[in-house]
Amino acid sequence: RQLEFSLRNALDRDEFSVVYQPVVDAITEQVVSFEALLRWTSTEHGFVSPAKFIPLAEDTRLIVPIGEWVLRTACREAMNWPDNVKIAVNVSGEQLLDPYFSETVVGALSATGLPPHRLEIEVTESIFVRDGTTAQGTLENLMGIGCGVALDDFGTGYSSLGYLRRMRFSTIKVDRSFVQGAAKDNPESLAIVRAVVAMADSLEMSTTAEGVETEAELAMIRKLGCKKIQGYFFGRPMSATDALALFSPDR
Ligand code: G
Ligand code: G
Ligand code: MN
Ligand code: NA
């Protein structure tokens, strides 16, 4: 298909960019990390939504080289930030199951000089469905060198609590559908967010509330005890230049 042809050339043509969305501490509101989010402006198709091209990149396995480029770009950018600020990078199952994935991560860290503890890999529950043993092995390997692993979109996938027993994630990211539901006093959403936070606390995992857009959502999420907050209320995904400017003293 036409889009696939364009995607095959996108890396060579330098059509990708990475934007960064801040994640703040729920209490201090200080930026603790950024999530790297890939963007594609195609010569032929203009701006293409990630919801459209990421699945295509996964199906064609183009996500493997593209993902390596994202890792390197994001780690390089993070070197410009204060050294207590982390970078979170989304990783698809196709990348994680690639036999060279650990080496790719180690390569990105050593090429940029980023300390492993400043990198957090974000995976979704779905990666444990296909080949849970391999996925777990690779993630444990990366945790062994000091990287964090966050469980993204928690609650929306093929939730199984089994892998929470086996693996120590650094962070559980509560999907924005629950966050926004809780702020609307939806009793089911409230109960679920409460339970996820309690579970993460006792497993010594941190929690990030995704998709916090309003003051009311912020207040509710604070009350529920989520540790970190991500969402348009504190910042949209922004260019590397704008992300860096958040740390300039004259702000
Ligand atoms: O940025 P946002 O809508 O627009 O992201 C849409 C989806 O694309 C999200 O689920 C996000 O996790 C995924 N995504 C964004 N950037 C990357 C990336 O660099 N790699 C992978 N594998 N997924 C990404
Ligand atoms: O699946 P993942 O969590 O990686 O996707 C992150 C996506 O969520 C990005 O596309 C990002 O733009 C989007 N996002 C981040 N904050 C908000 C928010 O406050 N509201 C909405 N609607 N989307 C958000
Ligand atoms: Mn994510
Ligand atoms: Na998410």
UniProtKB/TrEMBL annotation:
Q: Which residues form the signal peptide?
A: none
Q: Which domain of life is it from?
A: Bacteria
Q: Which residue intervals define the domain EAL in the entry?
A: 1-251
Name of the protein in question: Diguanylate cyclase (GGDEF)-like protein/PAS domain S-box-containing protein
Please report the organism this UniProt entry assigns to the protein. Novosphingobium hassiacum
**Which portion of the complete protein is shown here?**
530 to 780 of 787
